[in-house]
Prior knowledge:
Elements: E1 23-31, H1 34-50, E2 54-71, E3 82-98, H2 100-106, E4 116-121
Antiparallel strand pairs: 1-3, 1-4, 2-3
Amino acid sequence: MSYVAKNSTQKPGLEEQAQPKIHRIRITLTSRNVKNLEKVSADLIQRAKDKQLKVKGPVRLPTKVLRITTRKSPCGNGSETFDKFEMRIHKRLIDLHSPSEIVKQITSITIESGVEVEVTIA
């Protein structure tokens, strides 16, 4: 009769320590004003680095340019002159690897006016 030894990595009587689950969090910042957008993204990254989190970003996405061309003349008569208007929309992506509780602390900064923040947890 042979005995098979059990390979146990844990000592008996010790339970696993409850560690919070690490999530991949993507923060998307959108704004028409680049200065406000850069300020908010720098604040978010600084707070995340203070808490020793893994940070990737800010990734600068291509700027969307929305253009509208209209006639200057209200009645349609006269020389053909046009007004051209455009609005530029800037986007930044920041990826974090952290528990979801810490993200609430990081994103509790004062956000500049005109900056939209979208948080996705994966």
